Structures are given as structure tokens and as C-alpha cells.
Amino acid sequence: MTPPLDGVRVVELAGLAPAPFAALLLADYGASVLRIDRPHPLAHSETPPEPTPDLLARRKSSIAVDLKSSGGIALLESILCHVDVLLDPFRPGVLESLLSSFEGVLAKNPRLIIARLTGFRRDGPYASMAGHDINYLAVCGVLSQLGRTEAAPYAPANILADFAGGGLMCAFGILLALFARTTSGKGQVVENNMVNGVAYLGTFMRYARMTRLWDQPRGENVLDGGCPWYDVYECKDGGFMAVGALEPRFFRQLVKGLGLPERGLLAQRQDRKTWPALRELFRQRFLERTRKSWEDIFQGVDACCTPVLDQQELEDTEYEQRLPVHLQDSPGLVLERRQAWASAGLVPGAGGLDTLEQWLGWKFGREIKTVAGGLIKIDAPKL
Predict the structure, then answer these.
(1) Rounded Cα distance, 153 and 140, in Å
(2) Cross-strand bridge partners of residue 36
(3) Do residues 346 and 51 touch, judged by C-beta distance below 8 A?
(4) How far apart are CA 205 and CA 183, in angstroms?
(5) Which residues fall within 8 angstroms of residue 131, CB to CB, at 6 or more apart?
(6) For residues 115 and 22, is the Cβ–Cβ distance under 8 A?
(7) How many CA atoms lie within 13 Å of 132's alpha carbon, on the beta-carbon side?
């Protein structure tokens, strides 16, 4: 079956994390993705260089291009006349400074979608500043709600802004633009920034501040680690169990599985003053058995109590990683085991010449050549 994005051509200007993740999503669902890497003296040679640090390169190809040279820019602009999407990971103003004419590119290919992904908003006090995931969480209010009580706010790695609020939202924007193009016939500029993206993800958290669910300081609410029946507990062997028994019927099953008397606990849990004692009761009980023992007790039981599995044990037990969305009639590409657990990376220049030939019919030495480690277009002979 043909994947849903089959035939969609994407040019990804090389970056790290958010933009590569957006392109990875498109590639996994059938898009042809060509990454534009910096020039390298060994690119497009018989002794290629090492892969770049970008780990999110699955199903992509690469060409090395000097975007600071007129020849490199001319090549890029020629390619953009024949593609569907340009993915721009640069800070505001960089792409405009590279292209000879931003409007000219769109005029030559009115169906082109230019997806621009920045960290901060393109306006406001942080627009020209550098930042990372933790900074984008910080300025949109989400970071202030994450972490334990009496401790500093805690950023959960870089998954929220870089990947959920950045790369995933950017891919969503590209799909919206592709859908709009089916009726308008025209592409458009898709503006994405991680501050807006992660703030949107935090919509429920903002609204919940007006309810009993999240009306207390950080770390003292139902879903942020303050509640004893929505937390993680250590076991006798150092493993951990995750508890999320929010509803009364699940809480009853949790208490039953722990071997605790149900009487009184369900009613008492509504009183926040009882939470410290209840947490200590749970903590002591989980320490009495190994994680495997608790797994066996709660397996198949609606107590919302599950083991905390680490990546290595999942890999060792051949856990099957799958694409996030399955379309019955036009599924994405199969995620093979070797692709699921490790990245082979992508060498600058790997597979890119083949992609250009498939897209445009260009051949190396006829339409394109390398100069100082980067591809340029060969001028057509004058008649």
C-alpha cells in the first residue's frame, strides 16, 4: 500500500532536534526528504566523511552545499523550483539573508510550502536571542508548573519544546498547508515556534489552575507529583512502579492489590491533609516486594499500576517500536528493528545524488559538480 505522503518532496536545511524530527515524521509516512548539509571535502567522494551529529536521519538522503556561496545558493534555488516543502530551522532573518530573493523563490514555485521553525517567537523581547528547550518552557509558563514542591522547577529533558511543541507541531503545520494547497493550489509560509507550541500543549494545565485539580503551588496538585495515588514508587529491588489510580474504582483496585484495608482510605484521600501519611503508607508497602512481584499482582488489573520499564530492557525483550499513527488504507513505512533502537546517522552527501536524479533528472558531472566540498549547478553551455 502506498504511504500517505508518497510523492511529497521535502528539502530540509540541516539542523538539530526539532526540525530533523519534523522531517523524520514526514519521511516515515512516505515523503522523500533531502537534507542540505554543510560542505565537506570528502562529501560526494569515494571516501565519505563521518555521519553528522543529527540522529534523526532515518529514510533521508543528503547533499553537501555551501549556502554562503553564490553557486550553492543558485543550486538550492534551482531545487526549490521543483519541491513541495522547504524546512527552515534557522533563527529569524537567516534564510532571507541566504536566498537571493525570498519572494522570487515563491514566485518561481507558488506551490512551495516554507516551514519555519524557531525557538522563541519572531516578535517580542526574546526574538533575537539564542535559547534551548528549557528556555522556551520557562518563558511560556509551563516550566513553572513542573517539579516537586520545595524544589526548583524541573525540565523533563528536551522532549516538550524541541519535539512535542517544536518538531511535531511543525509537521502538523506542514500537513495543514499541504491540505490547504489541495483547494487553493498554492503553498504558503508556515510559521512555527516552540514557545507557542509548548504553550498550546499546556492549555489544560493553564485551565486546570482554576479547578481543584491544579489550584495549589507546584508539586502539591493531583497530577504534578503532589498526590500519593499519582506518583512513582520504589520497590524492594530498586525498580519502580508508576501509580495513576485517579478514579475511585481504580483506587479500590490499587488498595486491594497493595493488601491495604479499603475502608476509610477512599473517603480520606479527598482530604489533602491525609496525603503525606498515605504517601508514606504506599512507599513502605511498595518497598516490601520486588518490581516483578508487583507486576504479577497488578497484571490485568484495572488499578492503573504499571512497571517503569527502561529502554534497555525493552530493547532486550524485543519490544516493537511502531509509528505513532496507523492509517488502515495508507499506512506509514515499516519501522524495522534496526531502525527503532539506534541511529546510523547520515553522511553528508549520502544518497543525495540519487534523489536529485529521481526528482529532477540531474546527473553528477552533467548538471551538477562539486567545488570545495559542496555541490553547485553546472552552467548550461551557451549556444
Answers:
(1) 13
(2) 13, 63
(3) yes
(4) 36
(5) 119, 120
(6) yes
(7) 8
Catalytic residue numbers read 162
Predicted structure pTM score = 0.94
Q: Which residues contact 114 (CB under 8 A, 6 or more apart)?
A: 85, 86, 88, 95, 106, 187, 188, 189, 190
d(CA 382, CA 304): 73
What pLDDT tens digit does each residue of the chain (383 aa) get?
899 999 999 999 999 999 999 999 999 999 999 999 999 999 999 999 999 999 999 999 999 999 999 999 999 999 999 999 999 999 888 888 888 777 888 899 999 999 999 999 999 999 999 999 999 999 999 999 999 998 999 999 999 999 999 999 999 999 999 999 999 999 999 999 999 999 999 999 999 999 999 999 999 999 999 999 999 999 999 999 999 999 999 999 999 999 998 778 888 888 999 999 999 999 999 999 999 999 999 999 999 999 999 999 999 999 999 999 999 999 999 988 888 999 999 999 999 999 999 999 999 999 999 999 999 998 766 55
Identify the bridge partners of residue 146 per DSSP, sorted by sequence position: none
Please name which of 184, 275, 199, 294 lies closest in space to residue 237, comparing C-alpha atoms: 294
The 3-class SS string of the chain reads CCCCCCCCEEEEECCCCHHHHHHHHHHHCCCEEEEEECCCCCCCCCCCCCCCCCCCCCCEEEEECCCCCHHHHHHHHHHHCCCCEEEECCCCCHHHHHCCCHHHHHHHCCCCEEEEEECCCCCCCCCCCCCCHHHHHHHCCCHHHCCCCCCCCCCCCCHHHHHHHHHHHHHHHHHHHHHHHHHHCCCCEEEEEHHHHHHHHCHHHHHHCCCCCCCCCCCCCCCCCCCCCEEEEECCCCCEEEEECCCHHHHHHHHHHCCCCCCCHHHHCCCHHHHHHHHHHHHHHHCCCCHHHHHHHHCCCCCCEEECCCHHHHHHCCCCCCCCCCCCCCCCCCCCHHHHHCCCCCCCCCEHHHHHHHHHCCCECCCEEEECCEEEECCCCCC
